[in-house]
Write a structure and sequence with these properties.
Strand content: 15-25%
Distance between the termini: 50 Å
Number of helices: 3
Order of helices and strands: HEHEHE
Structural class: alpha+beta
């Protein structure tokens, strides 16, 4: 595995996954902008949808083994963990803050 292509959140999450074969991590795959047919086939074999030439960012839910294999591909720039976002501007009940 090429850890230089993984962001810190993804590298950390890989340590917590019990099954290395089960697709359980949502990731962004950043690639070179022009993919050849072999690269397209590799992405599609991992279940990445919407693979087409000219695109350079893809999303997928991958297993740790798939992430390891993709990190070794020369046309993959880096892999970043996708995390569910939460609202930042939620209303806070100021009366409970003791202000």
């Amino acid at each position: 595995m090429n850890y230089q292509k993984l962001d810190a959140a993804l590298a950390t999450a890989l340590n917590d996954v019990p099954n290395l074969e089960e697709p359980s991590l949502a990731v962004f795959i950043h690639t070179e902008p022009i993919l050849d047919s072999a690269a397209t086939a590799v992405l599609e074999s991992f279940g990445v949808s919407g693979v087409s030439s000219g695109k350079d960012i893809f999303t997928a839910t991958l297993s740790p083994n798939a992430i390891s294999q993709l990190s070794e591909e020369p046309w993959v720039k880096y892999l970043k963990r996708s995390q569910q976002l939460r609202l930042v501007n939620k209303r806070i009940n100021i009366g409970k803050l003791g202000v």
